[in-house]
Amino acid sequence: MEPSAVTQVNAPVPWYQTWWAIGPGLFLCFPVGLVLLWTSRKEAGWKVGISIACALLVVVSALGSGGSELPANENASVGIRESTTSLASAPTTRPPTTTMPPTTATLPPATTTVPPTTTTAPPPPPPPPAPPVTSPPAANGTISQQNARKSASDYLEVTAFSRSGLIEQLQYEGFSGGDATFAVDSLDIDWNAQAAKSAAEYLSVTSFSRSGLVDQLIYEGFSLEQADYGVSTTGL
Fold first, then answer.
1. How do residues 18-36 score in pLDDT, each as one tens digit?
2. pTM of this structure
3. 116: phi then psi, degrees, rounded to nearest 5
4. Which UniProt keyword terms apply here (predicted)?
């Protein structure tokens, strides 16, 4: 024997090429076991025989499992048909129908009472008051004015007066300002003569200077011209 052949026979075999790995591989996972078998150093006769035997076992087991599944499928289909038949033959009961009586709601008639509208016209405005009836004044004035004029004439016969002084005197007697003014203006009076008469009366009572007498006449209501004229008539 050659040395190389002896070395090949005595060389250690890997674990996956031993029968302890190939056998379980063929039973547990046939393809894996078949690969391990053909890659091992076993003789070709063993490889072919074991492969054929394993293939037959696989075919037989497949046929056996298919035959056992058929009755189960048939039983399942029979059960489905029976359940379908029982459902079809079961009497169908409809739920009772409840008949509701018709509801008739009677609404009272709506009556709307509209109050009558009364339009009250506003009362007409009152008529304007009638103007007071006044009697037209007499040609010589009213009675009060005539009395005021007579009283003014009486005062002038007693003493001298200026125009404003005579009106004030009549008002002091109780006549109104209008009546007193009407009475004085209705008389034809020379006020320069009244100023001269008043200056003479003052000089008959007491002595005056010219300017003092002029001032006194102005105080009595005469104008400056009337007072100067009256004092001039006295010789001052």
1. 766 677 766 667 677 667 6
2. 0.42
3. -65, 135
4. Membrane, Transmembrane, Transmembrane helix
